[in-house]
């Protein structure tokens, strides 16, 4: 699909979206139940499962069957006008071009990230937000209460993928690759433990986040919902579906969003996210290096002991 560049000033050559993430799990039926319960539309297609949000045609993620839960590759959306410049930038930075890693992987420009993760640059329409997501609040009333009725509750259905968080053994190397080569911009970081990057073409506070680990992996996918009630209701619907474990409700410092992380059957997470900071195209964000106590949350329950555990790294 051709997607022409809506040029901004100054002209920027950069990734514009996380087009798709792909990982394997040992049991597709378990994945279907988890993500359907979470509120995604899950379709059996292309040898696995496709993850969609309500009323949106884009496929945000794919789940394939494999021996264990493992991040297989990520696909990043680019504009057609940027493809040659990105290839030249890869060559100038000694980034290795690789073959398509799997028969089910898409066509595109395939690169090896410093931690070995296969990354595909694919000409695609921009799917990261170009404006801040709508926020819903109960209207003020003088004739009745503002809270919704429990008898009227419907399933929480996320609107779009906000971001993904990847494990990586070297935050500095990840920043050099994703920022210096692929054109993303640092939003904020906390030393060499965690960092957040956004697209200069406009995106949420982070398109991708990185947490330090012994190896690569997928920590969580984050899905936008339109109200704070939806975060709480999502947590409730997942408890009722058999997924009580996770973290939250709470509020992040970096990104400012309200959250509930739900632990999946493989030890990673899906996050309900509301009201994350938005960085418009061309805006200069005041990126900063925050102390560890600000890296995760303003308020909320204590962090689960194994929350930052990369279950894709073999236990030695």
UniProtKB/TrEMBL annotation:
<dbReference type="InterPro" id="IPR037523">
    <property type="entry name" value="VOC_core"/>
</dbReference>
<protein>
    <submittedName>
        <fullName>Metapyrocatechase</fullName>
    </submittedName>
</protein>
<dbReference type="InterPro" id="IPR004360">
    <property type="entry name" value="Glyas_Fos-R_dOase_dom"/>
</dbReference>
<dbReference type="InterPro" id="IPR050383">
    <property type="entry name" value="GlyoxalaseI/FosfomycinResist"/>
</dbReference>
<dbReference type="Pfam" id="PF00903">
    <property type="entry name" value="Glyoxalase"/>
</dbReference>
<dbReference type="InterPro" id="IPR029068">
    <property type="entry name" value="Glyas_Bleomycin-R_OHBP_Dase"/>
</dbReference>
<feature type="domain" description="VOC">
    <location>
        <begin position="160"/>
        <end position="275"/>
    </location>
</feature>
<feature type="domain" description="VOC">
    <location>
        <begin position="17"/>
        <end position="124"/>
    </location>
</feature>
């Amino acid at each position: 699909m051709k997607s022409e560049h809506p040029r901004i000033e100054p002209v920027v050559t950069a990734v514009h979206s996380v087009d798709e993430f792909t990982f394997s799990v040992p049991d597709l039926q378990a994945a279907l139940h988890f993500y359907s319960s979470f509120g995604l539309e899950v379709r059996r297609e292309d040898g696995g499962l496709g993850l969609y949000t309500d009323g949106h045609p884009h496929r945000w993620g794919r789940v394939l069957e494999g021996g264990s839960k493992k991040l297989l590759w990520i696909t990043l959306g680019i504009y057609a006008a940027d493809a040659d410049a990105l290839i030249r930038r890869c060559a100038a930075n000694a980034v290795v071009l690789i073959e398509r890693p799997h028969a089910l992987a898409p066509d595109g420009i395939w690169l090896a990230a410093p931690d070995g993760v296969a990354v595909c640059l694919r000409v695609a329409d921009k799917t990261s937000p170009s404006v801040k997501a709508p926020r819903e609040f109960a209207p003020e009333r003088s004739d009745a209460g503002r809270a919704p009725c429990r008898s009227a509750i419907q399933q929480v259905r996320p609107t779009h993928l906000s971001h993904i968080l990847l494990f990586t053994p070297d935050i500095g190397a990840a920043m050099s690759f994703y920022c210096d080569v692929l054109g993303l911009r640092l939003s904020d970081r906390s030393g060499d433990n965690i960092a957040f990057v956004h697209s200069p073409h406009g995106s949420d506070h982070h398109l991708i986040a990185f947490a330090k680990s012994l190896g690569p992996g997928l920590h969580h996918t984050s899905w936008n919902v339109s109200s704070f009630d939806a975060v709480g209701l999502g947590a409730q619907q997942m408890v009722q579906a058999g997924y009580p474990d996770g973290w939250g409700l709470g509020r992040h410092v970096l990104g400012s969003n309200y959250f509930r992380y739900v632990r999946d059957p493989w030890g990673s997470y899906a996050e309900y996210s509301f009201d994350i900071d938005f960085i418009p195209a061309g805006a200069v964000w005041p990126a900063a290096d925050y102390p560890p106590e600000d890296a995760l949350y303003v308020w909320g329950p204590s962090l689960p002991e194994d929350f930052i555990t990369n279950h894709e790294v073999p236990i030695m």
